[in-house]
Design goal:
The protein is mainly alpha-helical and 107 residues long. Helix content is 83%, strand content 0%. The N and C termini lie far apart (154 Å). The N terminus is likely disordered.
């Protein structure tokens, strides 16, 4: 009868130990999954920060290029005006507006 009592006292301890080990394994797995989840959350934050930095750099480059484009268009207009002036000088005219030519009257 004493053997039965020892077994009944030993069984709960064994079962309890088994549950504790299983519980510890689950807690360790949960901790690993939480770390993995935190790492995955940080990754998009880093990607978003890099994207925002690139976006602001591109916006600044866009503004700079628009200003350069405006300046180049302005220079093109000035060059066209100079070219017209040179053409007029080559043709014998003094300015951009040609002198009125006299048309001979036919009688």
């Amino acid at each position: 009868m004493q053997i039965e009592l020892i077994c009944t006292y030993a069984e709960p301890n064994i079962i309890c130990r088994s549950y504790r080990r299983h519980n510890q394994a689950l807690e360790a797995r949960l901790a690993l999954l939480q770390k993995k989840c935190d790492a995955l959350r940080r990754l998009p934050e880093a990607e978003i920060a890099a994207f925002m930095t690139e976006k602001s750099d591109l916006a600044a480059a866009n503004v700079r290029l628009r200003e350069e484009n405006y300046d180049l268009k302005d220079e093109m207009g000035e060059m066209r005006a100079r070219m017209e002036l040179m053409k007029a000088q080559i043709d014998g005219h003094k300015g951009l507006i040609a002198e009125s030519r006299t048309i001979p009257a036919i009688l």
